[in-house]
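Handout, page 2. Input:
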Amino acid sequence: MNLLERPSWQLAILSGVLVGISYLPIKLGFCIYFGFVPILHSWIINNSKSNFISGFIFGIIYNIISNYWIGTNSGAEFYVVMMSLIFAVIYLSLFWAFFGYIYGLIKTSKNVYFILPFLIVVLEWVRSFGPLGFTWGNLALTQSEYPFMLQFLDFTGTYFLTFIIIALNLIFYLYVNGNKFLKLNIRLVIFILITIPISGFYRMGNIPPISKSIDIAIIQPNIDPNKKWDYNLRKQTIAFMDSLYQDAINMGPDLIIFPETALPSYLRIENRVREKLQRKVNQSGIPIIIGTVDREIDSNGIKSYFNSTMYLSPQKDYLMYDKIHLVPFAEYDLIPNFFSPLAKLNLNMNRGIFKKGNNYVNFRLNGIVFSDLICYESSFPRYARKFVKNGADFLIIQANDGWLGTSAGPFQHFAQAQLRAIENRTPIVRGGNTGISGFILPNGKVITKTSLGKQVIIKESLPIYNAGTFYTFYGDVFAAISFVIFLFVGPVNCLKK
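Output:
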């Protein structure tokens, strides 16, 4: 029996497995180039109803394998974590189900193959919007181990790579099925397949000239986030962080980076803790950027909390950045009074937890401009774009993936930083509580990175380039064009008939 002759549900499961294992930490990213063949075959030969079911099954398997880490969050009770995982998997799978259904409605003999790459691009683009926007499962993330395949992201963003991946799956499918047209033009196909990686290797070695450099130390304390806010351990935690801070000072960097929510303290409010940090900054002459929680009380006594970062520089007042894109259900209740995974932490917070910031803040050091992304924000290209467009020479990412242990989450999160670096041709420094911390060049190459779950301080000289690309200034033009083509080739043509 031909493999593609199996029932649709089996084809959906097979594709789900092949696509799912393409993501880190399993280093099988090449599977993505043929992993869609079974599900695409099922969509091509079946009707809308069948495509909805097979798309949903595919989404379930694919997301359980690639995004299982959602269910490893140690910061919430088991039932909350399981609810989060189930909800996320179902939500993400419905995109594949509905788009399979739509494809069944609009496919014709003329567009049956042509429309598929545009369809998947539109799926990923649409899925990135709104409070439940999710870019973690984008197909480009599977290629972080092959940076030569990512070098055109500075023009097109991640969505063109999605287009290429689906197109190659289609080519493989047509070739296997004996498509005469493809066989006649196989030389052209081979040429295209060779050109992309070769041009990628060339561009990796042709980074713009270095304008400056800056020595940066990253503190990775490896503190259990479930214990950090334990009041009984507060003094011990602050003392431990102070000792690491002194070790970092002794390395003599130009800048020291702490991870997200580094201290169990509201630094802006608790003057004693902040002033102690400021004295060390003044004495050493080395500025620091440190993650903190902030709190404001309005005239009615209502408290608002922010996931923030604070920049302390010698003999100057502090600067603050408040996280703009919060994690739904974890940092705030998308549905009021639904559940709050962070409620069990002793933060003395009301229901609703964090409030989002509104300002894109730049920091300055010796003529170098930099900005900070806080954890989840780094998975969304739009925020990195905005910061670089506003003048940032390099980006910092502060994270706390300690909630996720040694799951796939931290590995994929670091890979997101590589994509942001290439998109904007800007160096990125990532500092995580438990890892993975490291330094990334504008071509996605990693200079240094730490192991996961280790207490360590690393220092590197970060080269500074002229950041900014076509993608930085114009964004997801390719995705928008794909959306227009999809509408014209699909729904619009169907309406004309």
